[in-house]
Every structure is written in C-alpha cells, then in structure tokens.
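User: I'm writing a short report section on ligand binding and want a predicted complex to refer to. Could you take this sequence and phosphoenolpyruvate and write out the structure as tokens? A short remark afterwards would be nice.
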Amino acid sequence: MVGIVIVSHSAQLARGVQELMDQMTQGRVRVAIAGGMDDPENPIGTDAMKVIAAIESVFDEAGVVVLMDLGSALLSAETALDFLDPAQRDRVHLCEAPLVEGAIAAAVQAAVGSSAAQVMAEARGALTAKRQQLGIAAPAVAAPPPTPSPTGAALSQTFTIRNALGLHARPAAQFVAAANRFPASLTVRKGARQANAKSINQVATLGVRQGDEILVEAQGDGAEVALAALAALVAANFGESETAPVILPASAKQQGVVGENAGIWTGIPAAPGVAVGPVQQYRPTLPPVVARAISDVDAEWQRLQKAITAAAAELTGVETAAAAQVGREEAAIFAAHRLFLLDPALQEAARDHLQTRRVNAESAWEQAMQEMAETYRQMDDAYMQARAADVLDAGARVLRQLLGVEMRPLTLANPAILVARDLTPSDTAQLDPDRVLGICTESGGATSHSAILARALNIPAIVGLGPRLATLADGQTIGLDGAAGQVWAQPDAETQARLAQQRAAWQAAQQQARATAQGPAITQDGRRIEVAANIGGPHDAPLAREYGAEGVGLFRTEFLFLDRETAPGEAEQFAAYQAVGQAMGDCAVIVRTLDVGGDKPLPYLDLGAEENPFLGWRGIRFCLDRPQVFMPQLRAILRASAGARLKLMFPMVGTVTEVRAAKQMLAEARAELRAAGESFAADMEVGVMIEVPAAVAAADQLAREVDFFSIGTNDLTQYTMAADRGNAKVAHLAQALQPAVLRLIDQTVRAGHDAGIWVGMCGELAGNPLATPLLVGLGLDELSMSAPAIPAVKAAVRRLTLSQARQIAAHALQLDTADAVRAYLESVRLSFATI
Ligand code: PEP
Ligand code: MG
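Assistant: Sure. The structure tokens for the complex follow:
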C-alpha cells in the first residue's frame, strides 16, 4: 500500500493533517509526518533529515507520496530525495497537491490499494469540491489513469441518499472504498453530472444531499455484486442516522495547542483520559543480586523451589484481588505470571546455572529469567516482545522471596500522577484509581499488561516517555492527555485550568457511559438484544452489574476447579452458584457445567495425557464419563436454582446422544434431591453450547432437546477452521469473522428459531462492537461478553435499526474472506462514528 508523508513548517499542522487522514481511513494508511524543527528557539521550519526519516518509516514497494506545504518544505523534500538510495528514490513522488485536501484525498485512495499514480491524481483533483461549492470554474484537472474498457452488459440502480449530511466525506469514503473492491467500472450520476465511483474527489464533488437520487451504473466483472454492496451501504445509511450528528467540542488533541518545543512531551498513548496534578516518583529497586559460590547445589535448588512456590501463591492472591477490581479476564495475566514461574524450561535453565556455575539461587534464577526475557525481546511480534516485562515482573517475586525483601505497597498519601521508569502489572494492579490521577512511564508499550490494566482501571496513562521523566520533581504539577499521549511538563495556570476542565468533562462522560450502559440495548426500531456478561466466579458479578450486564450469559464454572489440589465439593459449589445468583438479583445466570480438558487441564482429575487434547476428552465428554465429578455439580446447580434465575448449559456438545445422556443425569440429580427433600427450580431452562461444527450440522435435532443455544465462537472457530485458537502461526485462520464461521452462526440461529428456541452467543465475537451490526442482523437474541465490553456493544445496538442490521448481515454473508468482512464492518463502523 502506498505510504504518505506530510511535510509542514509546523509540527502542529502536520499532526492535525495526520489526524484527519487517520480518521478518514481508520488508521489503515501508513502516514508519517515531518513537521517543524527541533529547535526550541525556532520551531517553525522544515528539516530534510526529518523528511528522510518519515519516508523511510512508511516506505513500501508500492511507493510513497510526499505532500508539502510551501517554500522550504519543497526544498527539504527535494534534498531528502537526494539522500535516498536510487532504488528507493524512484518510488518516492513529490506531489504538488494542496496539503490538507490533497492529503485526505490521497489517504482515501491509498486505503483502497490504489497505485501511487492514482493516489497522486486524486490528491491533485482535491480542490474541485471547494471550487464547485464556491462557484469557481475549474481548471483542467489531470485525468485519472486510464482503466481497461469493461465488457458485458451495463447494470444500473437508483438510490436515494437519506444521510443527514448527504454523501459527505465519510459516507463518500465508504462508497469509494466499497466501489474499489470490485473490478467492474462504476459510474455515479446525479442529474446531468457524473462521477467515477472509485474516485473520492469525484464522488464528493457531486454534492449529493439528503433526499437526492443517484444512479449508479456498473459494467464488467462483479458488476452485480458491486451494486449489491453499494445497495447494502446505502440501505444501512452508511451506518449514520438520518438526523444531523451532534458536533462534539474539540478535544485537546484537536485543539492541538502546543508542540514538543513548548514543554509538551509526547509518548505512546496507553489509556485515555486527562489529568493534572502533582508528580509522585515511584522508582523501587531490589538490592543487587550478588553471585556467591556455593557447595551444596541441592540445598540452593530447594531454596529456589521454596521461593517459587511462595511467589506462585502470592500471585494467586494478587489475581483474586485484581479480579475483584478489574474483572477476571484482565486479572488472568497473573495466572500467566504464575505459569511463567512454574515453567519447566525456566526452572531447568536456573538449575543448569546452579550446577554449572555453582552459584547461589538468586544469581542462577536472575540469569535464567533475564535470558528468558531476552528470548521474548528477540521475537518479531511486538506483542510478544512486550511479554519480556511480564517475565521479569513475575521473576522479581521469586528474587524478593530469596532476598527476603518485602514488596513495598504502592500507595499514595494524596492524589498524584505516578511517574515511573516502568510499572509492572503487579504494581499497576495495586493502584487505587481514586488516588492515582494518571500514569507516566519512561518505557513500556501500548500492549503491555500495565497499559491494559491501566485501561481497565480507567487511569489515564502514557508510556514510552523516555528518561526525561526522571527530571520531574516530586510535588511538581504536570498535566497529561492519555489519548493524545501528551504530557505538559510545566503547564501554566491557563493550561492547568483547561486540563482540569477537560478532566471534569472526561469524568462526566465516563459516568454518563456507565449510566447509559445500565439501560437496555434496543435498536432504533424496537428490537431488544439481551446483553450479558461472561464471568468466572462470584467476585466477577458486581463488576458485571456495574458495566450494565442484564444477566450472566456464561458462568465458566471451571474457574472454581482451577489452582487447587482437589475438586470443590458439592457444598462449596452450591455456595458459589448461590452467591452469583444472589448477586445478579432478578437477572438470569447461565451456569455452564465443567468444561475441562483441552487447554484447561486439571491435574487432580487425572485426565491423562492425550495426543490431541482439543479433540479429546473434554467438556461434556469427560463429565458424562465421570459421574463422581458431574453429579455433585448438577446437584449444586439445581439446589442453587431454588432462590435464583439459573439456567444450565452443557459445553462441547456434538451429538444428540450426549445431550440426552446429560439430561438423564440431570433427571437423576433431581430425583436424588427430591428424595432428600431439597428444593430446586423444576422448570430451570437447559441449553447447549454450539461450539463443535457437528452441533451446527445437527442443530435442528439438538434444538428439539433443549431450551436454548449459546454459540461459542472461540471453539467453533478453531474446530471449523482446524486452527488451534492459541497458535499464532494459524491466527489468520482462527478468526470468528471467517466466512465459514459466519455461515455456521447463521445456520445455527435459523435452526434455533425454526424450532422456537432462543439463540445467544458467548464467544469472544459477541463482545466485539465491530461485529454487533452483523450479529444483530443474523438474529441473535442474546450476546454475552466480558463486562468492560458491554457499554460499547449496547451503544452499537442502539445506533442500528433491525432492517439496517439485516442488510449488513446479508452483505457480510456474501463476502468471501475474513479480511473483506472486517473491512466491510469497519466501513460500517466508520460511518456510525460521530463527526
Ligand atoms: C467458546 O468456545 O466460544 C466459549 C465461550 O467457551 P470457552 O472460551 O470457555 O472455551
Ligand atoms: Mg468453548
């Protein structure tokens, strides 16, 4: 894809243009800026070295288009070209188009994969819209590159545009992006004027207003599908409402007050939100590890084992506490930390150092841990590189145990902005969001778990700010905008007041979003979608309610069975199910029976080693064979159903026989309770997860056996695509937006509805707001997800009408790649966003 470089005398202007381009293309185009000079005295100007760096950062075989403002910008760009190696230089094009209009047109054209020549042609024609609106005659515009003459009969269709602002930039961008996906030649006519549907400038300059009719003519390959795709977009109003959008006040970023040179430092945005307040530096250190010669290797090995066990136990406590604060899903990082410690490879490496170097456990462990961290750092994938910090964080717990150093609690006496070299996930999880106004760190990335936890805790955060943070003094007032990644190191009174105002507005918006999330999710034409939470235990329930869950769509009961030596007894399980039922009040709770095996082994259940555990003895298969495990769970769930709205769900079902056998055991559990005089809800609904392709194929038969279906897209995807859900090498296949998976979802919903039962979804796809229009359109009755995803999914439901959603689903089902589905859903989302 063609890369674009913006050269401007002003860093601020360059950033603003980049922001507009990102907005128009949802960040799909590689844009780099070379704005201003690194001279605090003379910040306005251009610098050829910056232009070179910008070109290199977006360089692509397809070429780079450079847009400049004026004067020395051209000179710097030309100088930069001289420094490039000739092979690169040939692919870099300086374009004379107007900076702002040209950049936006170029970005939209580049986003659809056009050539550098097409991108330049679009950029050059970018003033046409303005001229027409101002009634100024257009000079001759460079003709777009010739396209081969289409063959076949011409098809045409008339559309009425209902968007409040007509085919303004965003819907026009979607229209053009959709048109560019098809080889057919596409022309749009409004009255006597005509435009190439693949040109953003031409489409936008047609001046299509609300209520206008346009005629689209299509000829050549894919003409029919292209018209259908455009029809779906128009029918969905490009995802916009017919009423005028609300214009939000400009954010600090849009106002773009100052640049790096005016005491503003830029880092990596990690968690949105604004803060202003005093600095508190946090720079904990462990005493240096001193290598000591030892004679008794076994004794040191035992010391290390003890320290690892203690650190792992500590992590269990941290995980429980973090789950209560940010939810089990985010807290799961500490389970991963425990796994790092218990990793045999790491322990083996430490043992090796003990034996070969004959040093103390501290030194052997530190070396093994650093080597492991380095292995992560060397990986290609940025996400995996960020895991090095997790290894070191987990490993430091063991060192603290060995060194006998207490972990200093990270508590703030007064509200402050925490400034640190780096924050480990363990540090971040202990933070009190009422005291920590914001976080600034020298290192770290947006995918670090600290960043993820900061987002979950709603603390504005910026990472990667570099060593200059060390120059900030405790108590000194600073400001930060987490979304913009900007820190005001010495804000004047006016800036402080403005930031304080922005913080208040941000907090009010947060409250509003949470309050709104408490309401039902109803489409604009009255279709209600139940939005529920996935939980792992009673302590997740308060968070689920806080985020607006209308029930629990998936209670993964296996969490009660993890990290222990023996299975929880019937009484303990009963207490947990009852606690969730009570915490959720009148809301329904779907309790899924034990889903172990596969990636969830439980040593004490003696599942045994299997060649292919994901295809082995897991979920209902295991439970049916182990009544001593299954029956107590069924009885516990039944007993808890007496005072709560519980529903029961069986996982990993592939055959009707399994369902019948499970129901038979449920009937036996009921009989036992009845005989014992225990009460339970006799009419508790019973459903199955649809997560094995066989269950989809037999969905009509299964539907006759149960009260509901809940689609588990995580497993359904891995089994359908034959792609392990945890294997990065096949991640491109293991995507729930794969056309094959979408068809199975469609088939399941139809089978369920034909049999008169409701159909929900509790796999990850349900919590992806990008997919909400599609899922509503496919007819799902309920969506269950991790709690923090609820507000966004509810908001997405409310923006839609059911008929729009159906059109979107119908179109998405015709697309033949996961990328095309995602691109289409992104174009739908783009037009939903408020300007
Ligand atoms: C699923 O497979 O989609 C699902 C929700 O179950 P789990 O992720 O617990 O396997
Ligand atoms: Mg599953």
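A remark for your report: Residues 140-148, 243-261 have pLDDT under 50 and may be disordered. The longest strand covers residues 274-282.
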